[in-house]
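Data card: per-record layout.
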Amino acid sequence: MANQRENILSLATELFYEQGYNNTYFYQIADALNITKPLISYYFKSKSLLAKEVSDKFTIGNKNTIAFKLYNHYFNCIEKQYDLQLSTAIEIRLSEMLCFIDPKAARFVQESNKDNYEILFISHYKDLYKIHDRQYHLNINHKNDEISMLARGAIAATTAIRLGYLNDEFSCTMSECLDYITTVHFRFMRVDEKRIAELVKMSAEIIDAIGFEFNPYFKIE
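The structure for this 221-residue chain is written out next.
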């Protein structure tokens, strides 16, 4: 049964990428896998929740790929202590670049965000904020679960900026938009502005120096 669920996710990823969110339907997945639509609904209650799981899966996969490449081609090479903030800035910038550079990834992001609420809040971002809190002791109120509110606020804000850029609503370059989105996350974490500027600059330089590729099916390599 676990394999069936993974098969659905794998095919959904291909269809969402190749033909878009709007033109992908449960019956197409069911026919291709020789299963019933109710079986898909058993695992994924709606297309929006299926899209969220697809998004979570490729986001986490890309995160691991980026971390591995950074360790081998940057931190390990210069024998420098791992920098969580810098690694996060690079991950954020690359994830946004995927949407901006790959038209099919951009289409999925635009269409899926218009159709649902769930996809706005990728679960791993709350965990990311918790990791930063443990490492840097962020200036937040733990009694009222402010960290959850900050994580959601950052995702909502950056999603709005991403869609605004994709819809040509801003008179800025892609690089300027990437800089701002990266900045927003660290402002929500209440990081010092001077440090934020340093992270934005270094993340762009390291990405250029190492070289990353944006490949089909939402892959950063």
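Known properties of this structure: DSSP finds ten helices and two strands in the chain. Strands lie at 214-215, 219-220.

See the next section for split statistics.
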